[in-house]
Design a protein that fits this description.
heterodimer; A: Rossmann fold; 6-stranded mixed beta sheet; B: ABC transporter involved in vitamin B12 uptake, BtuC; two-stranded antiparallel ribbon; 14 helices; 4 strands; 70% helix; globular
């Protein structure tokens, strides 16, 4: 792939990425969420979303031939395969049936002969099973090919996916998209071994992962992407895990640092407002597997981590939106986190990361949205049991002015607002509660720079001037570092550590990939 | 222009058609005051049953095709009043007093059931409505009613049609009624009562609980995030809808002058559903103005299409055909619209 560039709606997400993979090479692509890895893969596979958004610049060359793929089938014909992060398997089919899916081997029968239609032929199960067996053997899997996929442990399912790809004739390049994310350590080891085996057979492998130790262990070369920019391609033997982590995160100085940030000692001296012990949250895709931390009164605490590692689950669990367990103490008193109403009435507010799904009544007006939590929980804005519309409107207009919500008036449905203004409405709703503790998740996702700055400045003002404790969960590490007093980093559902915003890039990088402690131990030895 | 856009094309077509029918009726020399009176009565007697759709839609369970549950409760109230020979205005109130607690109980059980089948409420409710009607077909035969007003002269069970002439028939219609035009007698009590029920519902919708219920219907996830118990408010919506169905049935019966048993309630949800949809509601959005506009258009259309159609063609079938086309067509249209969102 040469000099790949891509724009989404005027937003340049890939700025000239070069990638060369030789047969038998294992090549890693590393980068933070949103660095452009998935876009790059979508381009390689000619996914529709690329064409629908105006194509891309640059060239994709496979085996010396320039390819302009219109669909992923075309690319697959050329010998490129993909092992998906989520399993694309049919649970009630056998392993062999899954491996041979849509490439079934068939034999003729009377009906198919009569109608001269191949799709009426019988399946040749014997042959299918035999070929599936070969693919499984290549991977060193000792398992019966007639077992139903539903019965398999998760680790095995990944192998079935791979078996399906290598069963295809003339496979030359295999893309692994975070294959080890859902695997246990020993399963991951097996997978890495299998990858090496495949590479020895001359198949090129493109390995996308966040786990830097795996990268170090198996790959030949590493390409690092940050914000769509091709940072560096280096042979694996020439860089350390530490260097990779540093290059991945980088320092983005787009937003100025918050000047009056508290020092570590100052934070330690503050009293604890919320004490969280052994918090487990069963939020699909963002599971939290036991986290302990203290939130100090008046600080801005950031929660960072990679997508899918559980950082989003923390606030959702404490607010009772997903099934959660653990001990939470608020101002020293135990708090029942399963009861959202109790939590809200304790002046704890929440701005959801899912703005359109959870954060807004899209068909409701701005004023309806702003007042509703406070009206329901604290029974304000009511007179004689009925809603006092004049009061609601006055408050909404205050909020619109204060947060600079661009709208045609407080009666405008929130559906018609831009992302940034919708976010401000969500924030206004939380602020109306007069919170003492405010959880804000992904406050700047999908909003323009102007609104971003306003939202972040407002959060800072809340903490510094109004003494509201703010917990910001965000995928944007640079933003967290610009506003937070401390940043907690969540990896694989657990707290990896808490850093000061001034900590080194390397430390952030290592913690986010969950290798900080492993690495520090090694260092100490 | 904005008003036209808000009305939507199907509503405009129906309004134009509606007006055209009135003009034709005038041209053909039909008795306009009589038609006006019939329309007003039908609008008044159907209004509450159409209103019953609103709490269902607002709490997120969609159009309440299981309205027959409430209707059956209303019928039970009516036949109890006859059985115990409570006549006049007291009979009407007695029917309500029996019907309302019954419909609360039925609505509550039904609401619990609906919470277990989230996502396919409308499909299930259609069949629940049908089933309860069939169940009560048996009940009308086996329940130990003794009043000669209602029993078959020979054999077991209640008659298919029970007259309210000697009990509380037309009790509301004849309350304070007066002639607007010669031949156009205005059913003051009926309109006042139906309007009063609408007003009470409107006031309820402005309370904390009313707003909470609407929030649950608009976005259950949002509602949960502000600490509302989604399932409880859905049950509340179901109960309210069922109660309004029961009250609506009692009002309907007194105006009609008869109570029809057995299969009669089977299809009674559909005109109510069609009316609110014509008024501009969808399976997710409804308010009282939709109820009033929809009932006027739909019931008005039914009243006038029969005489107009039969002034052109022999036989009354054509009006029934128009009714079916309008009623089922608008339900189909509204549901198809909802699906494409």
């Amino acid at each position: 792939m040469k000099d790949i560039q891509k724009e989404y709606y005027g937003n340049r997400v890939l700025k000239g990425v070069n990638l060369n993979i030789k047969p038998g090479e294992i090549h890693a692509i590393v980068g933070e969420n949103g660095a452009g890895k998935s876009t790059l893969m979508n381009i390689l596979f000619g996914m529709r979303v690329i064409h629908d958004t105006g194509g891309f610049e640059g060239e994709v060359v496979i085996d010396g031939e320039t390819v302009v793929a219109k669909s992923s089938e075309e690319v697959m014909q050329l010998g490129v395969g993909m092992v998906h992060q989520e399993f694309m398997l049919i649970p009630d089919f056998t392993i062999a049936e899954n491996i041979k899916l849509n490439r079934e081997i068939t034999t003729e029968n009377i009906v198919s002969k009569t109608f001269k239609r191949e799709n009426l032929e019988f399946l040749d199960r014997k042959q299918m099973n035999a070929e599936a067996k070969i693919a499984l053997d290549t991977l060193g899997m000792d398992i019966k090919e007639t077992t139903k996929v539903a019965m398999l442990p998760i680790g095995h399912m990944q192998f079935i996916e791979i078996a399906r790809e290598i069963d295809k004739l003339g496979i030359k390049l295999l893309v692994f998209d975070e294959p080890t994310a859902v695997l246990t350590e020993s399963e991951a080891d097996n997978l890495l071994k299998a990858m090496k085996n495949l590479a020895d057979k001359g198949i090129g492998i493109l390995f996308i992962t966040h786990r830097l130790d795996e990268v170090k262990a198996v790959t030949d070369n590493i390409t690092i992407i940050r914000d769509g920019e091709h940072i560096k391609t280096v042979p694996t033997s020439e860089v350390s895990v530490e260097e990779i982590a540093g290059l991945m995160v980088g320092r983005q100085i787009s937003i100025e640092q918050n000047e009056d940030m508290m020092s570590e000692a100052e934070i330690d001296a503050l009293e604890t407002i919320l004490e969280v012990r052994n918090l487990k949250v069963n939020m699909p895709g963002e599971e939290v597997k036991g986290i302990d931390f203290d939130i100090k009164r008046g600080e801005i605490l950031g929660i960072a981590g990679l997508a899918g590692h559980g950082k989003i689950g923390v606030a959702n669990g404490i607010m009772g939106l997903y099934k959660a367990s653990g001990q939470v103490k608020y101002n020293g008193q135990p708090l029942d986190i399963s009861n959202t109403k109790v939590t809200l009435s304790n002046d704890i507010a929440f701005v959801s990361e899912d703005r359109k799904g959870v954060g807004l009544l899209l068909d409701g007006s701005i004023e309806d949205n702003i007042m509703i939590t406070t009206m329901q929980v604290k029974r304000q804005f009511l007179s004689g049991g009925l809603i006092n519309k004049a009061l609601v409107r006055k408050h909404a207009n205050d909020m619109i002015k204060q947060l600079d919500i661009r709208c045609t008036g407080s009666k405008q449905p929130t559906r018609r607002l831009s992302g940034g203004n919708q976010q401000k409405v969500c924030l206004a709703r939380a602020l109306t509660q007069a919170p003492k503790l405010l959880f804000v998740s992904e406050p700047t996702r999908g909003i323009d720079i102007g609104a971003k700055k306003l939202v972040l400045d407002y959060l800072t003002k809340l903490a510094k001037e109004d003494n509201v404790t703010v917990v910001v969960t965000s995928s944007e590490l640079a933003e967290l570092r610009s506003v937070c007093d401390r940043i907690a980093i969540v990896a694989e559902g657990r707290l990896e550590g808490i850093l000061m915003p001034s900590a080194e890039d390397v430390e952030f990088g290592l913690m986010m990939s969950g290798e900080y402690h492993k690495y520090m131990k090694k260092e100490a030895n | 222009m904005k008003a036209i856009k808000r009305l939507g094309l199907p509503r405009i077509i129906i309004i134009v058609f509606f007006l055209l029918l009135w003009v034709t009726a005038g041209v053909k020399g039909l008795h306009i005051p009589g038609l006006l009176k019939d329309s007003t009565v039908r609008i008044g007697m159907n209004l509450i049953m159409v209103l019953a759709m609103v709490p269902a839609i607002r709490s997120g369970i969609g159009l309440n095709f299981a309205l027959p549950i409430g209707i059956i409760c209303g019928i039970l109230g009516g036949v109890m009043a006859i059985e115990f020979e409570v006549i006049g205005f007291a009979g009407f109130l007695y029917a309500l007093v029996i019907a309302i607690p019954l419909s609360v109980a039925f609505g509550w059980i039904y609401g619990i059931m609906l919470n277990k089948i989230k996502g396919s409420e409308m499909l299930v409710s259609t069949y629940v409505g049908f089933s309860i009607v069939s169940l009560f077909c048996i009940a009308w035969i086996v329940l130990p009613f003794t009043s000669d007003e209602m029993r078959w002269p020979i054999g077991e069970g209640l008659r298919t049609v029970v007259s309210l002439e000697s009990t509380f028939g037309h009790i509301l219609n004849d309350f304070l009624d007066f002639d607007i035009l010669p031949g156009y007698r205005f059913p003051t009590g009926l309109i006042l009562f139906s309007g009063f029920v609408c007003l009470i519902y409107y006031i309820f919708s402005q309370t904390r609980v009313g707003i909470a219920m609407k929030t649950v219907g608009d976005n259950p996830k949002f509602a949960a995030s502000i600490g509302l118990n989604v399932d409880r408010y859905r049950i509340l919506g179901t109960i309210l809808s069922t109660v309004l169905g029961a009250v609506g049935m009692v009002v309907f019966a007194q105006s009609f002058g008869y109570i029809q048993l057995y299969q009669a309630p089977l299809m009674m949800a559909f005109p109510a559903v069609a009316a609110i949809l014509i008024g501009g509601a969808t399976a997710k959005k409804a308010n009282i103005s939709f109820v009033i506009i929809g009932t006027i258009l739909f019931q008005g259309l039914l009243t006038i299409s029969l005489p107009v159609a039969s002034s052109f063609f022999d036989g009354g079938n054509i009006s029934e055909v128009i009714r079916m086309i309008v009623q089922n067509g608008i339900i189909l249209y509204a549901l198809a619209q909802g699906g494409s969102e």
